[in-house]
From TrEMBL:
InterPro entries: AspA/AstE_fam, AstE_AspA_cat. It comes from Caballeronia telluris. One of its GO terms (molecular function) is hydrolase activity, acting on ester bonds. The keyword Hydrolase applies. This is Succinylglutamate desuccinylase / aspartoacylase family protein. Keywords: Hydrolase, Metal-binding, Zinc. Its cofactor is Zn(2+). Residues 36-210 form the Succinylglutamate desuccinylase/Aspartoacylase catalytic domain.
Amino acid sequence: MSNPAYPIEIAFPDIAAHEASDSGIAYVHTFDSGEPGPHVMINALTHGNEVCGAIVVDALLRAKLRPRRGRLTLSFANVAAYGRFDASKPDAARFVDQDFNRVWTAKTLDDTSRGSSELERARAMRPVIDTVDLLLDLHSMHEKSAPLIVAGPLAKGIELAAKLGTPATVICDEGHPEGRRMRDYEGFGDPSSPKNALLIECGQHWEASAVDVARDVTARFLALSGVVDASDLAQDWFAPLPDEMRVVRVTEPVVAKSMDFRFAGDYTGLEVFDKAGSVIGWSDGAPVTTPYDDCMLVMPSVRQLRPGVTVVRLGRIEQRIATPR
C-alpha cells in the first residue's frame, strides 16, 4: 500500500486563547443554561493531527455559543500532541506517548502506577466526562475515504446515528484490542445507561471537506440534543442529508503481528470484496483473506504500523436505513 503525502488544505487554528476555562480544566469549557436538559459535549483533538474538530470547536467558542437548556461542554483533548504538529511529519502528532483513544477504562485511569502524557490528560478531563450525557467526538482518518459514524457495538448507538442522519455509513464495532475509546467509556458503552456517544470520522485529516462534515454533524448533533435550537447555529453549517444510511457490523480486526505487514492494493476504506477468501494483504508473509462474501474494509492504513496495532477492520453490511426528513 502506498503512503501518499496528502496535501494540507486547511489552516490550523491557534487555540491558545482557549486554555483558561471556568471548569478549571485547561481547554475544557462547560456552560450551564440553568435550565433542565442533558449535558452535551463536543470534543476535538482526541488525536493531535486531526484538525477538523479543532476548527469547529474553536469557531463555536469564538461565536460564544451558549446552551438554552442543559449544559454544553466544548473541549480540546490532546493539546500536547496538537502543539507538536510538524507539516514535514504530519502523522507523528497523533499522540505524544500513547494513543489517547485507547485508555478509557476506569481501571486504566485509576492505576496511578502507569503514567503518560495521554493518561495525565485523560485523568484531568475525566471529572467532566463522567457527567456528560451525550458525547460527539470529532475525528478524521489517515486515508482519503468517505466519512463515517463509529456508533459502537450497542443498539442505542445505531439509534442515535440514525437520528443524526449523516454520514451515510454507520460502523458498529467493539473497538480496538489495544484499548478502549472515549466513546465506549463507562455509561456510553453500557446498554442499561441512557448516556450515548458517537465518534465521527469526517474524512482525511487535512482535506477541506472534512471540516464541512465536522460542521454539519456538530450542528445536527447540537440541534438533535436540544441544548440549542437549530436557529442558534450557522445555517451554512448544515449540509443535505444522504438518501439512506448503511449499517456495517465489524466482525473482526486485522492486527499487525510485526512490522512485516502490507496490503494487496491501495485501499483507503469502504472497499467491498464479493467473495470470501479474497487476499487483501500479507502478514509476516502469510496471506490475509476475507472471511465471508461481501466483506468491507473499514479504515485500512499502515501509517501507524507497529506490532499490536489494528491495520484494518472487516465488516458486513447489516441494514439500510432511510434518513430522517
